[in-house]
Amino acid sequence: MMLLHQAAYVLETELTAKLAEIGMTPRGRCVLSSAVDAGRTQTELAELSNMDKTTMVVTMDALEKAGLAERKLSPTDRRARIIEVTEAGRELLARADRVVADVYEDVLGSLPEGEREGLLGALTRLIEGRLGEPVECDRPPRRRALRQAVG
Amino acid sequence: MMLLHQAAYVLETELTAKLAEIGMTPRGRCVLSSAVDAGRTQTELAELSNMDKTTMVVTMDALEKAGLAERKLSPTDRRARIIEVTEAGRELLARADRVVADVYEDVLGSLPEGEREGLLGALTRLIEGRLGEPVECDRPPRRRALRQAVG
DNA sequence: TATTGTTATACTCTATAACTATA
DNA sequence: TATAGTTATAGAGTATAACAATA
Description:
Structural class of chain A: mainly alpha
Number of strands of chain A: 2
Largest sheet of chain A: 2 strands, antiparallel
Largest interface: A-B, 55 and 55 residues
Number of helices of chain A: 6
Shape of chain A: globular
Distance between the termini of chain A: 21 Å
Oligomer: homodimer
Helix content of chain A: 55-70%
Strand order of the largest sheet of chain A: 1-2
Number of domains of chain A: 1
CATH class of chain A: Mainly Alpha
CATH topology of chain A: Arc Repressor Mutant, subunit A
């Protein structure tokens, strides 16, 4: 099962590097995906990505500075900010999605068809079964939440 | 392929939590494994685990404080310290290895035999092929090196 | 001059607590 | 009283730079 770690590690490194080349991060992509055409507030987006609201502030600061998303005042709650993805944000998100899809396709394409299906089948079974839920953890390691991983 | 991340993430969380229950960390286990009966110096161990020598100092401080390993003066180089794993260290390492092996066995055991072999075969092919080498990365993410991952 | 291990320091990333302004 | 977002701050984790002792 060390194999599993190594494969995931190398794949994540490659995806993060390729996203960085076009000026995107896995977290930024995650937030933009949840925000586009959704009319969600910062707090809602933070919950969707399992990040603290203060981490969301930092993330939004970066996205706004990069011109990829904007904070708009909510018409119904003057405390809240609705996050809107800009046209530039949409375009970059589309490019990022293509980058990720291309890598996945390339990786899976390197396997013979039978093995490819076997891999996906086994992983699906694990996710739906034995590895479905993270175990309880008193002091969880300080790392990105799964939802923010490149995917 | 998001499946791959999720499976690795959940598995790593479980292993880290179970190691913590017995007072072990993935990094500590990695260093102890490389050190036991090997007569290696701190720098050699740091290189084997792909960590900075200053990170190794911190790691050894913890292992020594916990009574799991000791710094001995090298008989041939008065600058160097040979790391020796204590009896307590050996015992805890053995327990840790058993914890990890049990989890792996349990996870793989949750798959029907055909899928199990398919999974291992596909992962092996990826590691030896498309996902063999991490891509070059200007500013690599600040995270544990693969070698220190639980395995 | 180069290397081992150490210390001091800085940087990244993330979260907790306290605050402002609303609700 | 509670909530959205912000700021200030703290902590974990890791690395870089400078240093002392030794090669």
